[in-house]
Amino acid sequence: MAKTLLAIFVLFAAIGVSLTAILPPNTVLNPLKFKLDSASLKSPISNQDLQLKVADTGNRQFAVQIGLYSDLTQASFALNKLELSQTANIFATHDNQRQWYVALLGPFSTIDNAKHWQQQHFNLATSLVQWPDSPPEQTVKQEQTTP
Question: N or C terminus: fewer CB in 10 A for the chain?
């Protein structure tokens, strides 16, 4: 009985040592280079809402669109390969045909800021778009009270 237990212990030790030699060293995983907007997954944004309007009024924010993907896995894979100086945002969008995943950098307070960032950082085919409005469930209302 003791010989059997010793043989099992030696066998497991040999397996452990051989696996340690074969497997790669413990590496830290790279952090994700994007944020996924979960609200847009439940209620996708219309592609038309991202298009720049000629007569833009109000407090709009802007973004640099760095990708448009038909699949979320494809979008995350592509963004993790890019060398970005800031975190990208993925929003689910839709048109009349299907759902898309758009990768945006921003928001920028003015279109000039977005253009400047686009010219400084990308040689890729990018476009300027409007930053999506916050969905109603994410909007925080602050009420003013009078003393």
Answer: C
CA torsion through residues 65, 70, 30, 131, sign: positive
pLDDT tens profile 35-62: 888 888 888 888 888 888 766 556 788 9
Give dist(CA 39, CA 93) in Å, integer.
11
Q: Structure tokens of 144?
A: 């003013």
What are the structure tokens assigned to 49, written together? Answer: 């809402």
Q: Is 130 exposed, middle or buried (0-12, 13-18, 19+ CB in 10 A)?
A: buried
User: For residue 71, what are its two tokens?
Assistant: 């699949």
CA 143 to chain centre: 32
Q: Which amino acid is at 56?
A: D
Under DSSP, is residue 11 helix (H, G, I), strand (E, B) or coil? helix
